[in-house]
Prior knowledge:
Bound molecules: zinc ion
Strand order of the largest sheet: 1-2-3-4-5-6-7
Amino acid sequence: xxxxxxxxxxxxGELIQVAxxxxxxxxxxxxxxDHINLYLIEDEDGWWVIDSGMDVGPTRDHWEQIxxxxxxxxxxxxxxxxxxHPDHTGLxxxxxxxxxxxxxxxxxxxxxGLVFFRASSDDFGWTNEQHQLRxxxxxxxxxxxxxxxxxxxxxxxxxxxxYRRLEEGTRLTIKGRTWRVVIGKGHSPEHACLxxxxxxxxxxxxxxxxxxxxxxxxxxxEPEGNxxxxxxxxxxxxxxxxxxxxxxxxxxxxxFFGLHARLxxxxxxxxxxxxxxxxxxxxxxxxxxxxxxxxxxxELDEQHIGLAVGECIAHLNYLYHRGQLERHxxxxxxxxxRSVDDTLPLxxxxxxxxxxxxxxxxx
Length: 363
Ligand SMILES: [Zn+2]
């Protein structure tokens, strides 16, 4: 069971203290997920900013309001990115230039961000086209992902021109307290979370979110990738190295207690999706697009369909690389997947028995 200790969320340009020296703020996002949570950690001689918001609408004005009213006369001294996605790094370059301060990120996130933020539709090549055909989205998928390839320039300020590298186990000392970097993979290449043992607080970014599941996607730049394998291994890693009773400060929704319950729920959620896909591919060989209703019961709009197909392929690649699905290319150039693991009927019976006899994990 998850607990949410804060009844209110921060108003625009305001802070809520969530632990000693740790403050929560929110910035708007122009999409269905309409906010991102950012955090400020107070040091003796300045403030550490954890994630920065997108470079859209009033976000810079909200930052200015915070600088003016809430920094208690101290400057920003460092900017940290949990990962490269534009809602997390869209204003990192602006913040670092404005305060002339260093930018902290993992190598995987910094370099990936540099590449993607500079990409334009001209970088959309035949392999990207082929990936869309293989998924079953056809010409509509090709057009929409070609357009998306240049779409991040409008919502991001260029990244800082240098960075300081975070790695698993890197320790940052902030006002005498140690914050340890814990790396997660699968949602993004090398996502940094920050854990402070003396406060028992985890800043979790998009790695652990209480009410939504992070997107785990295969896209055209790495069509044979297996991010779900990395994601599941990361969830296990977090169960091992982080305590169950930490206060979790996520990038979306609100701070919560119940870290281990949430991690176990996420593992179970993907295991359910994997076995449901295997079952669907037993009935008839199917494409990723045809399999979307197995994973997503809701209607998908244009904004979400690309992410949904990417997530579906992440599950299909996981099963394919484990030899539980095989695939062939049909006459439209589309992969059709078929279940080949003869232990599937037995596993399905066991899963149904478990579902009937045990309580689902409550979240
Ligand atoms: Zn993200």
